Each structure stands twice: as structure tokens, then as C-alpha cells.
Amino acid sequence: VQVAKAGDINFSSVNVVFDQTTDLTAVTPSANNSFNGGTSLPAGTYAWRVRSVDAGRQVGGWTVPWTFTVQPSAPSLTSPANNASFTSTNGLSFSWSPVAGAVYYVIYVSTNPTPTTNSYISVGTISTGWSFSQPPATGRQYWTVLAFDGNQQLLAQSPVRSFGFDGTRPSITNLSVTGVGGNEVDLAWTATANSINPITNYQVSMYSPPNAATPTTTITIGATTSYAWTGLMGMTQYAFTVTPVDVNGPGTPSNPVTATTTQSTTAVQSFVKSAYNDFLGYLPSPSQVTAGVSQLGPNPSSTARGAWLQAFATSPTWVNAIVNQFYINTLGRPADAGGLAYWSGQISSGALSVAQVAANFYASNEYFNGIGGGTLTSWVSDLYPKLLGRQPDANGLAYWVGQAGIIGRVNVAYQFYQSPESCRNRVTNLYLKLLQRQPDAGGLAYWAGVVPVQGDIALAVFLASSDEYYSNAQTRFP
Asked: How far lies 221's CA from each of 191, 203, 422, in Å?
């Protein structure tokens, strides 16, 4: 029995892969020229023939050659795993094992279980992998790979596998306010999830003020589609959003809805809000208002308000606010982290007073060479309107330019900052900021003398603890 590869019906010696004698009438040829159980013949077309040998070893003639074809193994699909699910093309790539004799492959992808007859993807490639250049169709997908030889003849087809794809992120289709109370807003919504992954929970965000760029507070709840947000301040407008979350993270947030609570703000709540606004430059969160009210009590006296403000005004937050304002006023920029920490530490530790820190800012090289103009004359000329509120007179300008050359810029800036003119200006500004009025003559004269010794904070605490400020707060922050 002889078997020749490449369909060689002439059985040239270079192509004969099996040549054996047997007393059987059926054999299974193998690639290593042995009988049954040897290495299987590789894929390809073969010719075979048989001749008889008698007992005297006389050889008969060969039969007419026949041919047969050994089909190659089908491509083995390696990824994605069968029935895998995807919500993006990340990780969605196809790969398969090579096929002997294959020159190229064609991958078919379809929403039909028979992808070769109804495919929306039919791509030829010489590699054993392929990826989408854009998201596939939504829903259950089916795919298979066909291997072809150099004559464009089909060698083998892989089994059919499936995968699921839905790139739709979960979203909120309708968020509404279903109830409003004095300290509560009730919300309800409907949501749309994709067909692959269900919504696991929701993130509910509250914004105060309602036009804030980032949420004031965000909480995570389960898969329920309603929530009662409690602990809010009365007569205050809030905005709310809801974001659905699945195993791949947050989906598309809802459009915001707004609601105004109905209960009137108490006088002490107004006072806390006013103090935060005036001392720190922002409105407090609901939790900060609650904490302030708890510390002050329902009807705090002027003395109690003064004690609360004193602790409030010497807090790291307030000191940071003072230093940051110096940066803005003198250098035209917010404080950097290192500078803020250093100068706030100097004030908090008592190493430097607020006035001394102010003098250092106005005397700094950055201020001197920038806003200050870079010369002693331009620098002193700039201090006059900044700290005294007026243009320099000729004699005063000449005197302080000379002093700057003798005692240094820091000492000159300090004397400007602590001068009667500067103190009167700062007293006036604090009255306008905290009481919305000009100071009376007696108050101006008294505090202009106290501020250089006790500092601006003493006056700010005094004014903000007054009954006048407490009453005004209820009008400013109802």
C-alpha cells in the first residue's frame, strides 16, 4: 500500500509518505509510515494505490490511483468566551487558533444564529485575531471563523459562538419632586438600564446653592426609585440629581430638579449663614448650619454669639481665608498650598500678627516687582491708595521713599498698614461689610484706636455679635 501527498498520482519518491506491506485488506496510514495508531496524516490531498504480493513474492500490478482529502482541524475559538457580555469594546476582541494549510481567514458576525448566511460583519484577515473599529450591534451576537487555503478553497469552519453587547449606559428618564416639607424633599424617578447589566444602586446628589457646580452631598442608595431627603433648612432652595449605577460604574445623571422647603429659617440659622458668608466667603452646608445652631442654642445672647464668633474667627478656616485674601489683594492670585500653610501657621502660632503678615505681603519681592512697579517711588505710590485710600502728597511720598531705603520695605508697609488713616479705612470697611452702614463718629474714633492694638478680628467679632447684625442677618438670609 502506498500513499503520496499533494495528490501525486505518479507516486514520486519525495511525495510518498506511506509504503507498507500487510496481509490485511484495510489499513489506516499514518504520517510516520506506520500502521494503525501512528501520527495522523496532516491536512491535504493524497493519492493511494494497492498491489498484491503472492506467497512466492511475485508482485502484481498497481491499482488505478485513487485520491482522498484529510480535512484540517477547525479553528478553535479562544476569545471572547462563549456567551460573554460587554457594554463597551474594551476587552471585546476575537482570536482563534491557526489552521494548518490556511492562508487567510474570514470572520463572520451576525445577530442571526447562522452568521455565515446573514452577517453584518464579514472580514478577511491573514492573522488569527480581529477587533471592532466601532461598537457592534446591540443585543445577542453570533460569530464563526472560516479557514481558506491559497486556492481560496474552504479548509474548515469553527463552531458558532455568541456574545452579548449593549453600549447603552443606564439613565434616568424622569426625576420629579413628589413632596416638599419644612426640612424634607421627596424624590421619585424612572430609569432605563441596558439589556446586559441591571442597575445595582443610585447616587442621589443635593446641591446648595442649586446652581453649584459640584454636589454639596451625594449619597448612595439601593435599587429603589424614590428617596426622601431630610435634614434640610427651611425656606431654602435646593437642586437634586440622580445617577444610576451598574457593575461598570455610574451611568448618565438626570437633569436637575429644584425644590424650596417651606419652613421659615430661624433667627439663629440666619445668623450662622450670615457669619459663614461674611467671615469665610461662602454659605454653610446644611450640616454646618445644624452644628452652628447646636453650639449657639435656640436664642443666643450677644455674649454667646461673641464667644462663638471668637472661636469661629480664630479657626484655621478663617485664618486661611485671611491669608488667601492677602494673596488676592497684593499678588493678584490665590494662595499656593505651601505659602498658605506657612503664613497661616505664623498667625495661628502668634509668631506674627495679621498686620505683620500684611506688611510682609506688601513688601514682598513679588508685589514690589509686579503691582508695585519695581522702584521705591512706584511702590510707595501704590501703597497710598491701597492702604490709605488716597493718592500720595509730594512731601509724604518723598519721606516714605527715603524711609524705605533706611528701615526697609517691611517696616514702611507695616507703618502704612497700622497708620490712623489705614485703621479708619479698615474700620469703615468692616462696618459696611458687616452692618451695611457707615460707622458713627464715636465708633470710628474708638475702633480706629483699638484696631492697631487688638487687630481687625476684635472689631469684626464685636460688630457681628451685636443685636444689629443679628437682626440684619434675618433680612439678608431669610
From this structure: 14, 6, 55
pLDDT band at 106; cut points 50, 70, 90: very high
Element (DSSP H or E) covering residue 146: strand 139-148
- Find cell 416639607 and name the residue: 181
- 18 grid coordinates: 506511506
Burial class (CB in 10 A: 0-12, 13-18, 19+), 233: buried
Question: Which amino acid appears at position 255 of this protein?
Answer: N
325 phi and psi angles, rounded to 5 deg: -70, -35
**Are residues 146 and 108 in contact, defined by beta-carbon separation less than 8 angstroms?**
yes
Distances (CA, A) of 134 to 168, 196, 197, 426, 466: 14, 18, 21, 64, 67
Q: How many C-beta atoms surround the C-beta of residue 232 within 10 A? A: 21
pLDDT at 133: 85
Is pTM, for the whole model, over 0.70? no
Dig out the grid coordinates for 39 from the structure: 501520527
Residues 6+ apart with CB under 8 A from 431: 437, 438, 439, 443, 444, 463
With contact defined as beta carbons under 8 Å apart, do 460 and 430 qualify?
A: yes
8 Å CB contact between 309 and 461: yes
Q: What is the largest CA-CA distance in the chain?
A: 146
Q: How confident is the model at residue 157 (pLDDT cuts 50, 70, 90)?
A: very high
Q: From the centroid of its chain, how far is CA 477?
A: 34
CB environment 258-286: b (16+ within 10 A), e (fewer): ebebeeebbebbbbbbbbbebbbeebbeb
C-alpha cell at 106: 474570514
